[in-house]
Amino acid sequence: MPTILLTGGTGGLGRTVTQTLLANHHQLIITHEPGHTVDSAPNLLAVEADLTDETACRNLVERTVAEHGRIDAAVLLVGGFAMGSLADTSYADIEKMIHLNFRTAYNVVRPVVAQMERQEGGGRIVLIGARPALLAGAAQHMVAYALSKALVIQLSDIVNAFGKDKNIVSSVIVPSTIDTPANREAMPDADPDNWVNPQDLAELIQFVTFGPGRMLREPVLKAYNRA
């Protein structure tokens, strides 16, 4: 049974991804923040973790390997969002977004890649990007968010360069707007039919980790739907 380390398993997207991966018969270790509830299920272990803490992330990876022998995939969903133009965005705002989006990813990716290098068969990593990180026109309205997600995409490129001969592949899924309750509340006048369904993203994650998408090299998957 493949073992997957999933961060942000209690978020708007994370709950759907958790249920989809469990339905595909994977062993899941999911992280969550204090105060969040996690429904119990077979093959599911929920762990409180501060992903901004480098030592805590290393310990999380070591514990996972000690209990399950390997990490076949890491799906990293933790992050945050903020609006703000160049004029409105201070460097402290940028640091906050980097703290939420890049630091939490990097702290897990580093020990996970080291483990995948040691184990037979390598492994798969999935990161979440953002369209403003690819399009300057969109980025101008959310500068700090775009810059932090650009670092995430660059991190994926570095992992793929390192992992090319080791069967370690990092995928970046770049959604437009995800159809979550929080986004519906924040944008009541928008048409959610144009957004990206969380179930579709969950199936895409399954596709690139253990489905035919495993053959893809250095994928950046633009999941925009009609938004």
Portion of residues in beta strands equals: 15-25%
Please trace the helix and strand order, writing H or E for each element. EHEEHEHEHHEHHE
How confident is the prediction overall: mean pLDDT? 93
Spans of at least 5 consecutive residues with low confidence: none
Question: What is the helix tally?
Answer: 7
Global shape: globular
Spatial strand sequence of the major β-sheet: 3-2-1-4-5-6-7
Q: Cα-atom Rg, whole angstroms?
A: 17 Å
Percentage of helical residues? 40-55%
Through-space gap between termini = 36 Å
What would your notes on this structure say?
The chain is an alpha/beta fold. Helix content is 42%, strand content 17%. It is built from seven helices and seven strands; from the N terminus they run βαββαβαβααβααβ. The protein has helices at residues 14-23, 54-68, 91-118, 136-139, 143-163, 181-186, 198-209; strands at residues 3-7, 27-32, 44-48, 73-76, 123-128, 168-175, 220-223. The protein has a seven-stranded parallel sheet with strand order 3-2-1-4-5-6-7, sandwiched between helices. Strand 4 (73-76), helix 3 (91-118) and strand 5 form a beta-alpha-beta unit. The chain is globular, with a radius of gyration of 17 Å. The mean pLDDT is 93.
